[in-house]
Each structure stands twice: as structure tokens, then as C-alpha cells.
């Protein structure tokens, strides 16, 4: 039936109020639905990632952030329980008690069938033996490959002891503390570390004069502010036939450090004195050495310190690249006649580096060397470079035999 146009133009279409309300409600919910769709789409993107890639992403986070990712996606709710890397850091917590509870919860709910490659534990304050034992026990029970622990202090002053069979998978061990702690992993028990290649000890109390000979695969060793705790023994023996990299940052209660490391290539030393370094075969493959001094030397001790330094030089006669910090150059400059009189201890030296970046702390060096224009002895074919943050005057380096000079700006 045809409807007259007059009726169409003059009539008003009635829409029920309920329909208007429904339409308004749909329009109001539209942004929410769009946001939900975007969130679902994003969730699908996270879920669609390969599990290996998801785990790789989580390994770059510490444990607290890794746990919080469980809110991102349904598939990530339990993903943090399978990551191969755990990093606990108390500095991301306001209270240590909350941190300790978080640590215990994570270890308790983690998937014990998942492989654990690396565990890092950093804690401020005084750490109880219970918390420390739980970390070591969990790491060794799962065959951890890399273990790094950094404490401010421990209440029982010793690192935990476990059955020797627990250490077989460990490849890297870092034990750092701001207070001295007994290290029970040295000496005869070290033979149980069949895979250990890297060790870093800070403020360790060493109770064995030959603590490292039992590590069959040890290649890199760092000793930082370690203390030899033996009344009648002042010689520390570093016997490691596979060792290629050695770093010593202050040793205490030690007069001599006997080195038997025929494969040693890199040696960095920084200490308050220069220990005697008797070596076997003179470190035949030694390539790079860096020497620095961070102690306090009175004027009456300068000659003894100089003689000890020269003795250390002669034990490194095969080194090819030598780096001397400003404090070492300062000490050498006190005895220019001795340098001229003595023959060069370095037979294979090809490069000498002078590091003056800490020169602002060496006012005595400026007074002696810059104003008095002292000389330092190096061979003719040695390349000399200087590293400094200051504008330096010319320095002249001479070799005691030919007395030819090399000028470095």
C-alpha cells in the first residue's frame, strides 16, 4: 500500500524509550569493548611467542619483575617458574623481611624440573644462615652452572658447606662480602669442583696455603681483599696448571705469593705492597700485565717498596704488554739512578702503557716528575702510550743502554 508523501513528511516516527536507552548503552560500551579487543589481541601476541623466546625475555629481568609479568597474559601466569636464570636483589624491596619471604616463596613454587643455569643473590644487611643455606641448597640441588652471591655481611661468618657431589656442574662461582667470611671450598674439597672454570672471591678467609691446586679446570681467578689465616704460614701458593687469567686486588697477612701457572696470559695486580712472586719457568706465555698501588708508603719505606717492585718485574720478564698506573710511575721516579744502573727486566716487552687517569690523587707525582723532569726507562722498540684526563707536559723516556729517547705527549 502506498503511503501519501504528505503523511510521510508531516508524521513523526515514534521510537520506544527502551530502544533509545539500549542504543545509548551500546554506544557507551563501545570504547570498553574496543579496549578489551586490543588487550585480547596483545595477549594473543604474547601467547603466540615461542616459549624459548618468552623465557629469554624473562631472563633479562630480576625475580621481582619476572614474577610481575604473570599479569600480562594467561600463558605467562606460571612462565616465571620455569626461567633458567634467577636474580634476587634486596635493593628493590623496602624491607628485608619482605624480600626474604619473597625469596622463599619463589624457590618453593618454582618448577623443580626446569633447568637452572644461573642464580644471583644480592642482599644488604645481615643475612641469616637459614636464608643463605636455602639459596645454596636450592642452587646445588638443581645443578646450577653459575652462582653469584653478594652480601653485606653474614651472621655466622662462613659460606655454607654441602656434600661434595653437589659441585660437579658448577662452572662459575662468585662469593662477595663486605665483611670477612671463611671459604670452605678451598683446599682438598676443591677437587669436587670438576667443571669450575671461573672463581671470584672477595674478603675470603683462606685457611689453606695451597687452596687452588685441586681445581682441575680453573682458568680465571680473582682475589679481592682476601686474608690468609695461618699463624706460621705467610706464603700463598697459587698452583693452577690451566689458569690463564689472574687478578689480585690486595692480599693481607701474606709476604709471598708463589705462582705456578704455566698457561697464565693476563695478570692484573693492585695492592698496598708488592709481594714476592716466585714463579716456575718465568710465566712463558704471559701477554698482558697491569700494576697499580693503592697503599700508603712513607718516605723511609720507599726504597724497600722499590726493590719489591723490581723483584716483581723480574718475575714477569716474558710479558709483552705492560700497563703502569701513575702511582707506580711515581715510585719508579724516586730512584732514577737505580733504573739506569739496573738492566731492563723485560726481555719480550713490545708495548708500555702509562695510565695517568688517577693523577689528581697523585700530588707527589706531580711535584717529583713534572717539575723535576725525571726519566723512565723503556727499550727502544717499545710502543709507549699515555692515558690521562689532564693536559700533560712532555715526558722523556730513555733506555739505560742506548739512552735514546722516546717523547710522548
TrEMBL record:
One Pfam family here: F-box
Superkingdom to which the source organism belongs: Eukaryota
Segment forming the signal sequence: none
Gene3D superfamilies assigned: 1.20.1280.50, Ribonuclease Inhibitor
Location of the F-box domain: 43-96
Protein name: F-box domain-containing protein
Organism: Lactuca virosa
Amino acid at each position: 500500500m502506498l503511503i501519501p508523501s504528505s503523511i510521510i513528511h508531516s508524521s513523526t516516527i515514534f521510537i520506544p524509550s527502551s530502544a533509545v536507552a539500549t542504543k545509548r548503552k551500546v554506544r557507551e560500551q563501545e570504547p570498553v569493548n574496543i579496549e578489551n579487543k586490543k588487550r585480547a589481541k596483545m595477549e594473543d601476541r604474547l601467547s603466540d611467542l615461542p616459549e624459548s623466546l618468552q623465557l629469554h625475555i624473562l631472563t633479562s629481568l630480576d625475580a621481582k619483575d619476572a614474577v610481575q609479568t604473570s599479569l600480562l597474559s594467561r600463558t605467562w601466569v606460571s612462565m616465571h617458574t620455569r626461567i633458567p636464570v634467577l636474580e634476587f636483589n634486596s635493593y628493590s624491596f623496602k624491607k628485608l623481611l619482605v624480600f626474604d619471604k619473597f625469596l622463599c616463596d619463589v624457590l618453593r613454587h618454582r618448577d623443580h624440573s626446569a633447568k637452572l643455569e644461573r642464580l644471583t643473590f644480592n642482599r644488604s644487611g645481615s643475612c641469616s644462615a637459614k636464608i643463605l643455606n636455602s639459596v645454596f641448597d636450592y642452587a646445588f640441588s638443581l645443578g646450577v652452572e653459575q652462582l653469584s652471591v653478594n652480601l653485606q655481611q653474614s651472621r655466622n661468618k662462613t659460606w655454607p658447606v654441602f656434600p661434595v657431589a653437589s659441585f660437579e656442574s658448577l662452572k662459575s662461582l662468585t662469593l662477595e662480602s663486605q665483611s670477612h667470611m671463611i671459604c670452605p671450598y678451598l683446599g682438598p674439597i676443591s677437587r669436587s669442583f670438576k667443571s669450575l672454570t671461573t672463581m671470584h672471591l672477595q674478603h675470603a678467609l683462606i685457611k689453606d696455603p695451597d687452596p687452588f691446586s685441586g681445581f682441575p679446570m680453573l682458568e680465571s681467578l680473582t682475589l679481592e681483599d682476601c686474608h690468609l689465616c695461618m699463624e706460621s704460614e705467610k706464603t700463598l701458593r697459587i698452583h693452577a696448571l690451566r689458569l690463564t687469567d689472574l687478578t689480585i686486588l690486595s692480599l693481607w697477612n701474606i709476604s709471598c705469593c708463589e705462582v705456578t701457572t704455566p698457561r697464565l696470559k693476563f695478570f692484573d695486580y693492585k695492592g698496598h705492597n708488592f709481594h714476592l712472586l716466585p714463579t716456575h719457568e718465568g710465566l712463558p706465555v704471559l701477554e698482558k700485565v697491569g700494576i697499580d698501588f693503592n697503599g700508603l708508603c712513607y718516605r723511609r719505606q720507599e726504597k724497600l717498596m722499590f726493590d719489591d717492585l723490581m723483584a716483581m718485574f723480574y718475575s714477569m720478564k716474558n710479558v709483552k704488554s705492560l700497563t703502569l698506573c701513575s702511582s707506580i710511575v711515581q715510585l719508579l721516579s724516586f730512584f732514577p739512578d737505580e733504573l739506569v744502573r739496573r738492566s731492563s727486566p723485560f726481555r719480550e716487552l713490545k708495548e708500555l702503557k702509562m695510565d695517568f687517569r688517577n693523577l689528581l690523587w697523585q700530588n707527589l707525582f706531580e711535584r717529583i716528575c713534572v717539575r723535576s723532569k725525571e726519566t723512565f726507562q723503556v727499550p727502544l722498540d717499545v710502543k709507549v702510550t699515555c692515558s690521562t684526563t689532564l693536559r700533560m707536559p712532555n715526558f722523556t723516556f730513555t733506555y739505560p743502554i742506548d739512552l735514546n729517547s722516546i717523547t710522548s705527549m
